Amino acid sequence: MAITNTGMEDLIRDGLDRLGILSSTKKAEISFHSASLFELYLAKLPDGSRLAIKLIPKKEMAETEAEGLEQLCRLGVRVPECLGTVHLGKTSLLAMEFIETGSSAGFRQDLIASLKNLYRTEFGSWGWKRDNFIGSLPQTNGWFSTFSEFYWERRLKPQIELAQSRKLLTDKDFISIQTIFQKFAEEWGLDRIQPRMVHGDLWSGNVLQAKNGHAYLIDPSVSYSHPEQDLAMLQLFGSPLNLEEMQEILATCGLEDPANLKDRIQFWQLYPVLVHINLFGASYLTSLRHILRYYGMK
């Protein structure tokens, strides 16, 4: 679908010019590519190369997404090359390598290799150096010495309170989620595990299957957390990996009890389900109620 809005074309060309990608004397063919939370455009440059151009409403969103991509790349994760961000009035532009998707052999093994690289390195604290975003929602971070404090104070509790303020959850829901979290964080010894870098928003739509046989991760929301958080989210909307492959990833990275992952998946899905309640409304309450019942809460 080609753009017919000349102003949008000029905006994107201006951004590419400011990033030093496109001279103002040259033209790029701009077309609309897709939209979910944000619009994505395709820029075909005079030399035939193509870029993905993401328009993001907040400067901080663009900066933290670019920062996340660069962090994953440093750890040996396959991501689109990030070419920079620029703020343009009421929107920000993030320019990236364009990944041509399609069915390919080798995709699953490439994804497994990237995730093993991502989770291999231990870190001394839980959290991240700056706040970022999960979808379009703010995600606060900071540094914590224990998993329990980090995950409750910076992940579950803010989402519960936001949903309560919108009359989507009750005080009983708050208590039920808190009870589940405290019980299993202690029972599973999650405070004894060293934090690892996680993608943070690893649903199947953020894993691109490229025609070249590689798997590319996009739209990260990074922090030092527990890898099971990523793998459980990958299961939420149809994972490209099966349970045995995910257990292999955890075992290779030296994490305890990978065989118990099946029983933990819904625990870790509490956070993304709460995020979806706040992003999309009451339609996701059924998923939350299912998790609460699974862990004995009515």
From TrEMBL:
Single GO MF descriptor: kinase activity
Keyword Kinase: yes
Ranges annotated as spanning the membrane: none
InterPro entries for the chain: Fructo-/Ketosamine-3-kinase, Kinase-like_dom_sf
Keyword Transferase: yes
Keywords, in A-Z order: Kinase, Transferase
Cross-referenced SUPFAM superfamilies: Protein kinase-like (PK-like)
UniProt cross-references to PANTHER family, sorted A to Z: FRUCTOSAMINE 3 KINASE-RELATED PROTEIN, PROTEIN-RIBULOSAMINE 3-KINASE
Family named by the database record: Belongs to the fructosamine kinase family.
Protein name listed in UniProt: Fructosamine kinase
Organism placement in taxonomy: Bacteria, Pseudomonadati, Spirochaetota, Spirochaetia, Leptospirales
